Fold:
Amino acid sequence: MDILHERLSKFTLPDEVRKQGLYPYFREIEGKQGTEVEMDGHHVIMLGSNAYTGLTGDERVIEAGVEAMRRYGSGCAGSRFLNGTLDLHVELEKELAKFLGKDETLCFSTGFTVNSGVIPALLGPHDYVICDDRDHASIVDGRRLSMAKQLRYKHNDMADLERKLQKCEANSVKLIIVDGVFSMEGDLCDLPKIIELKKKYGATVMVDEAHGIGVFGRQGRGVCDHFGLTDEVDLIMGTFSKSLASIGGFIAADSTIIDYLRHTARTYIFSASNTPAATASALEALRILQREPERLEALWEVTNYALKRFREEGFEIGDTESPIIPLYVRDLEKTFAATAMAFEAGVFINPVVPPACHPTDTLVRIALMANHTHEQVDRAVAALVGVFRQLEIIK
Ligand code: PMP
Structure:
């Protein structure tokens, strides 16, 4: 056995969990991603999707994708930089920029490649990148890929952020990057304070709106809009893989930043452009989001109901303020057991274990969609109360 194989043979956690019959990953869905799905032969309530607006199965979104595929074909066979730009990509970029209140946007093939491409493109070895320690993995990888000096502050701890800013030379580039809504815990970044510190220390701010778009702000414009701070935030990142019912990602900023990124972001230039179908579906979802404010209202109505129900039943749900509801377990084995037992009881939830969280913070993550009903929430809460009591996670 070579040295690499020898090392990999010690990676036994998946097998251990499989042997216990608790393996929760790669379950196969046999249809559209709705509020209830057929999965691995079970009928389950879907509480593990990021489709907050509930648009992934919407006929108009599907039809827009089908039509674009017929008109433009199945792929673009090249990068945006060269032969891969369609008028459709540009149309989506223009509508997004207008929606978000920024000069321009650039669309990438996934949200992950936005963060992993934009951060290294902007920063050099004399610069600083400053992140919240719960930022998404794609920000972590973007930070690592950059040549910049790397600083991390304790989650949402603004005094710690200020200490980190004080470490940087006054005339250096300092890019602060935060999740608008933290993807596992569902809490928001303290954007007003971050902007105050940005001004005090001459920093630049980038907000990841992956879980903010379609959820917060006017017509779902995101957390920056929710706080009325869009103009103060320099770069807004987002994805089409959640509320916009497709796949792809974007960065929005002023024309100076965007034109620089257009010619320097390696994940934009050296990767093929997004498919016509995905682009058209995202554009249609964006239009529906703006036309149908009732979706956002429904999402918040069912979110508030679920938050109230989980609190009433004694679940520990942390500081969430969003449709992402963490149910803390704080035990690795029980987290896998709760996920498997919930599945057997007809509820699909996602286990969150290291490296996605600290070992003492393991949880199961619930995410709501605009088209979930109170009846589905009640059914899920009843099933989860049973599971959590059996495992002695709650009383
Ligand atoms: N940022 C955050 C906060 C996310 O949660 C995700 C997806 N889980 C991404 C970026 C990456 O987006 P995508 O799925 O489009 O690659």
Notes: The first strand starts at residue 36 and ends at 39. The chain has two domains: 13-46+293-390, 59-291.
